[in-house]
Specification:
By secondary structure, this protein is of the alpha/beta class. The chain has helices at residues 22-34, 48-58, 63-75, 87-102, 119-128, 137-145, 192-198, 227-231, 248-252, 262-275, 277-293, 317-321, 330-338, 348-352, 357-373, 375-383; strands at 11-14, 42-46, 150-157, 163-169, 179-180, 183-187, 208-210, 213-216, 236-240, 307-311. Strand 5 and strand 6 (183-187) form a beta hairpin.
Length: 389
């Protein structure tokens, strides 16, 4: 562990992607093995990436130990640990959703709010984060110990339409909250509610009430995924994406034949909302870095160069999900097949909810293999500021 108040100057950005976030754990596992003293002092997360960030911030053992614990949690995960998949509950919710449509939206019943019940996920988070309804105590301890400088989760407000970033920082770090068009931050003691809100997939997962307002997945309105890290003073950002960068040939290859089923439309929509924004934001940061490099120091007016490394999957995680679709619980499989998941070659929508042990383990192994292949580039990135790299 770094000595108290020693600044590591590394910010870890973990994007969303539902079950795909297991890939992030594999990447971090390999990094922890090669760089045992690695310890990001700023963590930002959105959606399932926020769950990983919360765990890292809430525990005080070494980075490598925490990653191994995350690997164990993800590797033993079953879909029933995230949401209820029994036939009775799914049927009831589907019928009530239909009833809501037929009634003109007059149904007041909570069961009509989402397709699945995420009470198991809340129970899991309360257990692994060691808290109930109050603030996550481990985060406050990490901030006081000094190794953690700031952590932030982003969610989308269904009440106001804004992107909200909840931030908890060390008292002496001098970080101020910020506000931009349609996005702002607020300082608070982070709770499980914030993590649940950030990871609430639209329509499938219910919205979460936080301090009188309703929130859903943070990727919906987060047009600049790197912005929370920048506002928190980042100078070196390591971002782990769950989006596979398709080649031109792959991008031109049809994923469906004929009229697209709902699963294909939802997959394209979810990719555009949750995963594509990081690419454009990274390009924007590169352009700013090039601009700053040409400016004399006395003309930069607060602009600074920020080193960025984005790590991403070498395989299409949506396409990988196809092989595990038959292993889904029968009732849930019936629901997803009704949406057309068997009619598309790349199940991007299904991969978000594929909390199956075998699929998760494959993603962890892929993350490890990818990080190992990127080691020369990672070493160059870390060696610019960390003598231990």
């Amino acid at each position: 562990m770094p000595t108290p108040h020693k600044r590591s100057d590394l910010t870890l950005v973990l994007t969303g992607g539902g079950a795909r976030a297991a890939y992030q754990v594999g990447v971090l596992r390999q990094l922890a093995r090669v760089f045992p003293h690695l310890s990001p002092d700023v963590l930002t997360g959105v959606s399932a990436g926020g769950i990983n960030a919360a765990y890292l911030a809430a525990h005080q053992n070494s980075f490598a130990q925490k990653i191994e614990e995350l690997v164990e949690i993800w590797s033993s995960l079953h879909i029933e640990d995230v949401f209820r998949v029994d036939l009775r509950d799914l049927t009831s919710r589907t019928v009530r959703w239909g009833g809501r449509l037929l009634s003109g939206g007059k149904s007041p019943l909570p069961q009509a709010r989402s397709l699945v019940d995420t009470a198991p996920l809340r129970a899991l988070l309360e257990r692994v984060l060691e808290t109930k309804r109050g603030p996550i105590p481990g985060i406050e301890r990490s901030l006081k110990d000094g190794w953690l400088r700031a952590i932030a989760f982003t969610a989308s407000s269904y009440t106001t339409g804004q992107s909200i970033t909840w931030v908890q920082t060390r008292e002496d770090c001098g970080i101020e909250t910020w506000e931009r068009p349609q996005r702002k931050s607020t300082s608070c003691a982070l709770r499980v509610d914030h993590v649940m809100a950030s990871s609430a997939l639209p329509f499938f997962f219910p919205a979460v009430e936080v301090d009188g307002a309703w929130y859903g997945d943070g990727g919906i309105r987060l047009t600049a995924p790197l912005s929370p890290a920048v506002h928190l003073g980042a100078r070196h950002i390591l971002a782990v994406s769950t989006r596979y960068a398709r080649t031109r040939e792959e991008a031109d290859r049809p994923a469906v034949v004929g009229y697209p089923p709902p699963a294909q439309i939802a997959g394209v929509l979810y990719n555009a909302i949750f995963l594509d924004q990081l690419d454009s934001d990274a390009l924007h940061m590169q352009q700013i870095n090039e601009f700053v490099a040409r400016l004399p120091d006395n003309h930069r007016r607060g602009l600074r160069r920020i080193e960025l490394l984005v790590l991403r999957p070498s395989k299409d995680l949506g396409r990988l999900a196809n092989a595990y679709e038959p292993e889904l619980p029968r009732a849930f499989r019936f629901l997803t097949r009704g949406l057309g998941t068997r009619e598309t070659r790349s199940n991007d929508m299904l991969s978000l909810m594929m909390f199956q042990t075998d699929y998760v383990k494959d993603l962890i192994e892929l993350g490890e293999a990818d990080a190992k292949a990127w080691l020369p580039e990672i070493r160059r990135f870390l060696s610019e500021w960390s003598p231990e790299a």
